[in-house]
Amino acid sequence: MNTKLMKCAALVLCGSLLLTACGETNSAQESSSNEDGMVNISWMNILHAPSPPTDTVLSKIEEVTQANIDFAWVPDSSKEERINTSLASDSLADIVSLTMLENSSVRNALKAGVFWEVSPYLDEFPNLGAISQDMRNSASIEGKLYGIPMQKDVARNGVILRKDWLDTLGMSVPQTTDELMEVAKAFTEQDPDGNGVKDTTGFIDRSDLVFGAFKTLGSYFGTPSSWAVSDDGKVTPEFETEGYLKTMDFMKQLYEGGYINQSFAVTAKSDQQQGFSQGKAGIYVGALFDSKNLLNSAKGVQDNMELVMVNDITSTGNESDRAIWSTSNGVGGLLAFPKSEVKDEQELKRILQFVNDVMSEEVYTLMTYGIEGMHYSMNEDKSVTIINQKLWEQEVQPFASSRPKEPGYEVHDNDPLKTEAGRLIQENATFAVLNPLYSLESDTYSSQGSELQKIITDATYKYILGDINVDEFKQQVQRWRKSGGDQIISEYEAAYKAVNN
Q: For residue 216, what are the CA distances in angstroms to 201, 220, 226, 463, 473?
């Protein structure tokens, strides 16, 4: 085992002062150029895999980027503690992956000038310059961008349906919410699996008003993405809009008609997905890329299952009303550069050049699929098939969290369902409704937002289940306002004005 791998493995497995130890090493390894032109880069990064990767792929990445990369892998399970400790002790690396922008220690460090503000430099580099202004704004803190946005899919949700059931019943893929309701009704009442028993429902959902069906359906009714801001800067929470009420009515109709699993309000995600794969329902609303996992889980149980994904449903039938929500606006975090490690502008530009190179299709392919002929094979259309799953998991998968950008590359998975999901998710970006307050701060929301949201979540479920009426729901909204909601709105309005005026 080489020195670099031994060091990383020890850091992860022993968990002993990871960030401090790496910080001490990095201080002696500033990102200077060697005689061979290679740049030394230390990178504190999040590890989502059981163990760090070997050097097989890393060596190729270093070759392409002309950099000696010293990864300090932070296990995902302890990232908050480790990052907080590292910030407090000023023991960082040239590049720090900050995936918790809502963390108070992280935000305070960003606002305090611990990291370089990079906006003035992005357009000097082709891949960095291609980052959209919406992405830059969403990743900014109080109007300043303190790192390279880690670009994720802007909007990945849609509707997944049993195409074989649609065909059996002679129905078309729904394009409107009314048509979706008709499909849900038919899947419940017309025995789509042909077993002679009334044992199916249309929808199967889970106890999650964000990543379950509710928020995606809300997009179809014109609900904003968490908040709406008027031209004069007035802030409105999503649950005070007409679209939110229409979404509750739609869900209420599903529940009362029996067109959705009656226990959806207390159903876990795993049970929802298992139920769909077992043929208990024919409509799943969630991330479009879930389709492949659902189909795989159905093998041996529902071998005739065929799926179709839909991302263009509206409540009006008008293309101009097409929309899909986005809570994080596609921002997965920041690659930030601490001034304690990156000493001057010249050094910053060397690191920015490195990140620019990591965003190339060649490095993305290495970090996603590995080395051709060893980990994967590729067709002429740049579709990839993994040829050694175990080796890929060991040598490639751990790099997934290192990719500064994920969408928008030509190389893609060879599986048709994954390819179609990727295409639809990319298409979603055109119609995504961004959260206009994502990068802004409200002290009251930070301290009380989660607790106050429970008022709205409980009221929403009670309305759908028929326990309260619309007037009683609105009373709960007023309770939210009086308990701190008005203060949250006031603080967000002030923050929005400060950035946009």
A: 19, 7, 12, 18, 21
Tokens representing 265? 């309000």
Residue 116: what are its φ and ψ, rounded to 5°? Answer: -65, 140
Determine contact, residues 343/118, Cβ cutoff 8 Å.
no
- How far apart CA 350 and CA 357 sit, in angstroms, is 11
259 SS3 class: coil
What amino acid occupies position 33? S
- d(Cα 179, Cα 420) in Å, to the nearest integer? 22
Task: Give me the helices (H) in 264-329, please.
Answer: 269-277, 290-297
Distance CA 301, CA 290 (A): 18
pTM of the shown model: 0.86
Q: Please provide the DSSP assignment of 74-116 as one string.
A: EEGGGHHHHHHHHHHHT---SEEEE--TT-HHHHHHHHTT-B-
Nearest of 308, 331, 327, 269 to residue 421 by alpha carbon: 308
- For strands 95-98 and 201-203, give the pairing: unpaired
Tell me the per-residue pLDDT of 350-388, one tens digit each, with 9 for 90 and over.
999 999 999 999 999 999 999 999 999 999 999 999 999
